[in-house]
Amino acid sequence: MRQVGAVQSWCLGVMLQLILAAALHQGFATVAPPTTAPHKDPGRPERGIYQVTNSNGTTCLLAYMGLQLNITFDSQNKTVQDVVNIQPNMTKSSGSCDSDTAFLNLTTDADKTSLIFNFTLNTTSKKYHLSEVSLSATWPDMKDPFSVRNTSLDYLRSTLGYSYRCRNEQTLFVAQNFSINTFEVQVQPFGVTGKQFGAAEECQLDEDDMLIPIVVGAALAGLVIIVLLAYLIGRKRSHAGYQTI
C-alpha cells in the first residue's frame, strides 16, 4: 500500500502542475495592461450596433461592441489620463466597403470625436484584420485638438465569410497616448449576407477560457484512472503474498 500512496502523491503533483500551467497560459495570453493609469472609471460601456452600407444600399460591415477610449492629453496646466465610454445612442456610424478594404467611422457631435476603424482583407489567404485606427477629438478640457493614427495594426483577425467574436475584454494599443478597450465585440467587415453575422471565429482569450476546464477535467480523469490501476496492482500483489509454498 506504500507504493499506492506514492503513486497517488505523484498523480496529485502532476495534476497541480497541469492546473498551474493552464492558469499561467491564461495569464500570458491576455493583452498587456495599459501603460497609463486611468483618471476615472466610467464603468462598463454599453454595446452598440453599427453598420455600413455600400452604394446599392446593402449592408457590407456589421459591428456589435462596447468601446472605451483611454486617452492621455495635455490640459491647460497638466497632463490628463482619461477614460471615456462611447455611447451608442449619441454615436453615428458611417463608412465604406471595397473588395479588400472596409472602414467604420464612429462620430459624436457632443464632444466632437471621430473614431475610424480600417479593415484589410488578404485576397490570397482570405483573412482579414483591423489594420488601422485613427482618432480625432476636441474636448473642452483639451489644450489642443487631439489626433492620433496607426496604420500598422494587426487586431481582430478572422476569415472571409466569418465574423470575429471575443466575449472577453481586450485592450487594443494604438499609440503611447491612446488605446481602446473592447467589450463583447463581434465584427464582420467582409462577406456579410443580408444583415446577419456569419459564423463566429472565437478570439484566443475565449479559447483559453475554455481550455482551462478541459485541462483540469482531463487531469482529474487521469488521476482517477491511475489511482484505480495502482490500487488493483497493489491488491493483486497483496493476494500473491498469501499464496502457500
TrEMBL record:
Domain Lysosome-associated membrane glycoprotein 2-like luminal: 45-192
Membrane spanning residue stretches: 210-233
Superkingdom of this protein's organism: Eukaryota
Ranges where the Lysosome-associated membrane glycoprotein 2-like transmembrane domain occurs: 212-243
Signal peptide feature range: 1-21
Keywords: Cell membrane, Disulfide bond, Endosome, Glycoprotein, Lysosome, Membrane, Signal, Transmembrane, Transmembrane helix
InterPro entries: Lamp2-like_luminal, Lamp2-like_TM, LAMP_CS, Lysosome-assoc_membr_glycop
Subcellular locations according to the entry: Cell membrane; Cytolytic granule membrane; Late endosome membrane; Lysosome membrane
Family according to the record: Belongs to the LAMP family.
Protein name according to UniProt: Lysosome-associated membrane glycoprotein 1
Organism: Anabas testudineus (Climbing perch)
